[in-house]
Amino acid sequence: MMTLTALNHVGLSQVEARLVEFKTQEIKFCEKIRGLKRDVEVRNNKIKYLMNELEQVKKEKEGLDNKLTSFESASKDLDTLLGSQRTDKNKEGLGYSAVPPPAQVYSPPKKDLS
Questions:
Q1: What is the 3-state secondary structure (H, E, C) of 38-87?
Q2: pLDDT digit string, tens, across residues 38-94
Q3: Does the residue 56 lie in any domain?
């Protein structure tokens, strides 16, 4: 039968083997955690970049919306102005009428003095 020290030695070597296995797994997990942290940092930087880009696009859109509103207002005013213009043939309201009034400059025919 094995002695107590031999059993302790076998048990100790098993525990040491498991300890080595756990240390190896710990190293692998730590490397994996470092890789995941790096991935998270890269994604966070990408998110910050995209958020800044989104803010710039929002500001640009706001500026373009203001320009569009201005152009629409100017277009509406121009349409109103063009609609209120007179045609070349329409002189109504300017002192002209379609038929001129009869002129009072009628001079009677001269008598034949011969």
A1: HHHHHHHHHHHHHHHHHHHHHHHHHHHHHHHHHHHHHHHHHHHHHHHCCC
A2: 999 999 999 999 999 999 999 999 999 999 999 999 999 999 888 887 666 666 666
A3: yes
Half-sphere exposure of 62 (CA within 13 A, CB side): 6
Residue 13 belongs to domain spanning: 7-78
If one counts the domains in the chain, the total is: 1
The reply to whether 38 falls in a domain is yes
The rounded radius of gyration (Å) of the Cα atoms in the chain is 50
pTM of the prediction?
Answer: 0.52
Please state, in angstroms and rounded to a whole number, the distance separating the CA atoms of residues 34 and 74: 60
